[in-house]
Amino acid sequence: MTIRLDRRHFLMGSSALIAAGAAGLRPAFAQGNNLRLIFWGGQDRADRTYKVADLYAEGGGAQIDGEFLAWNDYWTKLATQVAGGNAPNIIQMDYRYIVEYATRGAIRPLDQFVGGPLQLGDFDQDQLEGGKVGGQLFGISLGANSVAVLVNETAFEEVGVAPPNRDSTYDDYMAMGEAFNSANIRGGIKAISDGSYTEPMLDNWLRQQGLSLYTADGQLGFGEEEMVEWFRMWQGLREAGVCVSAEDQALDTGAMESTMVIMGKSATMPSNSNQLVAYQSLSQDSLTITNYPRIEPGAGGGHYRKPSMFFSVGGDEANAQAAAEFISFFVNDPDAAQVLGVERGIPCSAAVREGLAPTLDEKSQIALNFVANLGDLLGPLPPPPPPKAGEIDASVLRVIGQEVAFGARSPEDGGKAFVTEATALLTGA
Amino acid sequence: MTARSMETGVSAAGRAVGTQGVWARIWQQDGPGYLFLLPWFIGFFGLTVGPMLTSLYLSFTNFDLLTTPDWIGASNYVRMFTADPKFAAAMRVTFFFVLFSVPLKLAFALGVAMLLNRGLKGLPLYRAIFYLPSLIGASVAIAILWRQLFSGDGLVNQFLANFGIDGPSWISNPRYSLWTLIILSIWQFGSPMIIFLAGLRQIPQDMYEAASLDGASKWRQFWKITLPLLTPVVFFNAIVQTIEAFKSFTPAFVISGGTGQPINSTLFYTLYLYQEAFGFFRMGYASALAWFLLVMIAAFTAFSFLTSKYWVHYDD
């Protein structure tokens, strides 16, 4: 539909705008009943999301104006909009940031809507808990997921070695790596990517030892000794040529296209269960997922069912209820569920899950079954990370991890430096 | 202001009484001019001066984008110089980049300009082609292309393989990554080249004729005639390019995915500033960083102007 205005109408319109502005009113069409939605993700996620928004509008709900960005750009844009008093009504939120936004009053508690506009009757309890900050509900989980190792099955077939399974340990990966090196296919593809500065992988490794990355009071949950051992283990994998070189790993900028499995540099890499669907769309080979390696046979408890992402409500008080209604539709409506699939994780409503399961394609089934059958791998949900966790990940773990990988620091020195710098950030202002 | 008051203004000015008359006269003389400048004034004060002053204020606060800023005095500036190793790393990277990219780029631009100045056929075409990288140089697309060229199995290494050289992944090796960005900057030599070319055209031919009659070699002519007479242009280009280099952001941002990796080797000052502001929610500190960058650039420019009288020759 195009709107045409002649000059007279244009002038009338703009003077009306100015008059409205002077009176402190916003023109109706700028506010209206439209809700603004912002989320991170790729084109596939956007297509699904907008289709659900259309379904909602067709059913008489509010119009949704959506906007999506890649993960790295997303937080910049969101922070700027919130700072400018221009926060969207519905905000996709991550476990890492929810405390920060909630405690600063940038998103609204939703408790008053639960049972009314926001139906959460058969919602998973652990996923509901994950969206709470200080006892109040600030985020509705859009799906449960778990960390997982992304596996290129085709590459393993070509090498002629069994792909990693539920019981595989770091030592087993060492053996697979040697098989890859002697087969030397695809220009020397390695068994695994370098996970030494992948935060969830370190977290998982610590949890299997009964430790944690961060404690509930926001301090480091481990010491220098563990960090040195972690860097040493990866040094061993690197020297044996089991994981990719430091140079190759540094090509990974966080975009899906630059990851080691998609670039064909390694046959496995740390990832998330819900990302299998998206990664498969980028690869000619057959991909699957399995759990992170165990530290020794029988060790478990490293994984947890993480709320993959939330919808939170920001912006105008007046539109909060309408936003909650949309979120309710998003997580409960069976037709919406068909469109969304498990792309954002496993749906948290039991009814939705049951309706969806038989209709899923093969890769989505794998993701669903993986999260549903974690068994002894499953540990408790850790507390939300402290506010400085993002900075520690991006500018301490990554930098020191790369220094160790490139040989600018020894694992011993790196372990010590990490603990010192991370502690300084956590205890400082 | 209405026509009526303008009339009274004129008569008041005629009698030369009161300040109102002076204002009216100014209005009558320059009013329309200011009226035409108004759109620019609104932009300049609303979009440039206003935000700049705000950022100066914010640089003395702990603004975190989400909550109200609190005044913390000069703490941000103190932290910058005493307690921030990453600031030091960003300064090292930026100065290395400026010190190498600017002279190399200018030398390259001058070289190409001199080649083009030899009365080539189809000069406008070459000029346009060489200028092209400057037009598209700072774009995201070029930075992505650069990633492809200089990665482990990129075009550069495929070329080197012909000579039996097994090159590293230039872009992701901390030893070379900054150099790939310096090369990218040199490649955008178009705009200084055009200016050099114009400068070369200004040099009177009879000077060269006189020099060759005296038996001066081409080499000597370059050092004794071309370069001295070109110094005003070199000076201009050096200042503009240095400021550009200090402000360089996009290539490093795209090539490292905003991380400054590997090991902070591409952590440009502006990239660090961006990380602090939007990645780690320290807008107050980032504002202080921005103001320090402004001071650095101003100091550099002032220094260049002060020393220019010793090496820039304006002879007309």
UniProtKB/TrEMBL annotation, chain A:
UniProt GO molecular function: ATP binding
Highest taxon above the source species: Bacteria
Record InterPro entries: Bact_solute-bd_prot1, SBP, TAT_signal
Location, primary (coarse class): periplasm
Keywords: ATP-binding, Nucleotide-binding, Periplasm
Subcellular location: Periplasm
Coiled-coil zones: none
Keyword Nucleotide-binding among UniProt keywords: yes
The protein's name: ABC transporter ATP-binding protein
Classification lineage: Bacteria, Pseudomonadati, Pseudomonadota, Alphaproteobacteria, Hyphomicrobiales
